[in-house]
Amino acid sequence: MQGFKAFFKTAKKSLPMNLIYFFVFTGIALALSHSSADTKNPAFSSVELSVAVVDQDRSDASAALKEYLAGIHHLTDMEYDKNTLLDRLFFRDLNYILILPAGFEQKLVDGETELFETVQIPGVYSSAFVDQQIHTYLKTLTLYLAGHFSLKDALRRTAETLDSAAGQVHILDTGSKQPSSMREIYYYFQFLPYVIFSMILCGMTPILTTFWKPELAQRISCSSFSLLHRNLQLALGSILYCFGIWILFGLTAFLFYGSALLTQQGILCMANSLLLLPVAIAVSLIISCFCPPANTISMLNNIVTLGMSFLCGIFVPQQQLGDNVLAVSRFLPFYWYIKNNDLIFEFSGQPFQMRLYWSNMGIQALFICALAAVALMVSKYRQKAR
Q1: Residue 79 dihedral angles phi and psi, to the nearest 5°
Q2: Helix axis angle, 15-38 relative to 227-257, nearest 10°?
């Protein structure tokens, strides 16, 4: 097991950097947890806004949604004229514009999530209440449709369910810490891909690079230590190294949140984060094949990890990213991780469905296969080049 021992002897050199990442992330998690605990009893007041609805569908579902909003806000039914709408928004005649495109009802019945468009005044946070009210209505309606009610019955039951709460937000303090714990776990796993990738790329890539250096590679090839045994032992060392990092953050989460991590949501988050490891291993192997110096590895780590974090919704929620950004981020593994994290806690307004969870996990597995194939191809090419 010479290669295995050499792997972990080299790993000791990256221990200080990994500890820095670990303690910084732990501090962020504690800060977010404290912030969530401080805001668990906020005071809300009912606010009536001037809302314009551009109904291009003219269906029963769009009419029911407008009726629900009309009971809360000052609703204006308008035709789509971009200049007129923007002018009225600019002069504050309107606070919020909701656009229901043609096919809204059919997309709703089919279970699609991209149902409507909105135009809001930047920096006016009261518009977030309208967003929440629309998502609450559609989420309730979706649940009735999922229960095999007809559209007509689902619309009627949704109106009955939300009628008593229209225009009001009630905060019920039951004394339970469970909602706060779930919110804290959400933030913990939201930022986890960034730190795990940083630790693995900055910690493991220099180790693998050492074994790709021409002098050492030629020396190994002249010894009785076969290339197959070397690769198998390096693979075992990489798996244990990354799995150890994952266990460390799992134990940290359990230390912070206790039994809340053992709920279904906590277990699903742990399973979702486990798929980050093979992705990080494959990316590290691809980078190490080119034997970059230490400062280049750090630069590549910032480009890859920070780039995916900003594009895929770690630092900025996916709901606030533009369509063009989301179109690009769908080709990155972090996007599907965050999509699953939002789905588990229903932060995107979509009710949790195990089918969608496993679908997102499957897409992440396809990324793993694709990156592993690229890593093997690059490794084979580098070997032939020498």
Answers
A1: -85, 160
A2: 30
